[in-house]
Amino acid sequence: MTHHTDSVREVALASDTRVTLRGPADLADALPYLLGFEPDDSIVLVALHGPRGRVGGRIRTGIPGDPESWEETARQLAACLAESGGRAGVKPDAAVVYLCQGAAEGESDKEAMERLRPLAQRLRTACGALDVPVYEALFLSKDRYWSYCCPGTGCCSGEGDELPRAGTSAMAAAATYAGIRVRGSLRELERRFAPLGQPEAARQARAFDAAAVALVPRMLGGTDALTVRGETMELAERLLTRFRRAALSGGRDDASTDTSDDALLTCEEAARLVLGLQDRLTRDRAAEWMEGAEAEVALRLWRALARRCVAAYEAHAAAPLTLAGWVSWSTGDELGARVALGKALEIEPEYVFARLLHQACNEGLDPEPLRRCMRQQRAAREH
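The chain above was modelled as a monomer; its predicted structure follows.
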């Protein structure tokens, strides 16, 4: 598809809300609504199905900084797009490729677009090799877009084209009607899990050092490990009660509440709980707080703990990040789940629980069977 083509792409936002996208401008404008956030520094592949190009699954990853890795990245993403649809019995008939990145210092948006052109070509080639032709490949930067599929015969400006003003397009109106909102940029969503800055980070690191001396030998012991598990869960329950009271008086849960949530934890409490959650059985018990009002409070606690994992203890964030991802997925927030689980896998690529949850979430599986299993385990233990 080029700028000369007015091919139809159809997006189902809800059972009674469908939007027809015609051409690159509509496709560029639609991306934040398809993902639920502004995908800065991202490669995004969107599957298309059927003669009308019905929009299907989406895959997003960061843009590798090393061009030497672009070939392998393109092959992996193309295979993932084709295989995920194949497992569901609906292999994509085509795809749309997006490259989203702001210009580097001293670089224009057009120069950034040209710098990433070889990556766009590799993605188109990799998808085509798997019989998933790329109908459109777009570069998005701030409020402008370029098409890598433009034949260069005067159909578009070399300086790119302007995106519709926020909230004014048909896609924006349909998304509002369907109750879909764009939750800021990817950086803003990830920032809710970012480690604390100084001077808090230094105090937290010292608390980790002290807690590690006291707890780790006990956790590695035999019978004493059981005692530490009990102490960890008791601490988690006390903190949940504290967070619940704050949530009842504070109302909404968004980025503006993170600072107040951070103030609910002492450095010593955070260190002891994070270290205790490194034990798999303890973490699995904590994962039982996954639905209803209990889940909302647990999510705020897990996020706060992830922010406390600083300096040499940053890898310890894999446990609270995975718990945050699980709670988000369990409560229907797939975007929040992908962000949290993606961060967990960045920190610890082989963290098994995060890998399994991330795969299940991306494949659109129902979390209810896992919830049911956890309910049964909890009931058996309590009786």
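Residues 59 and 80 are 8 Å apart (CA to CA).
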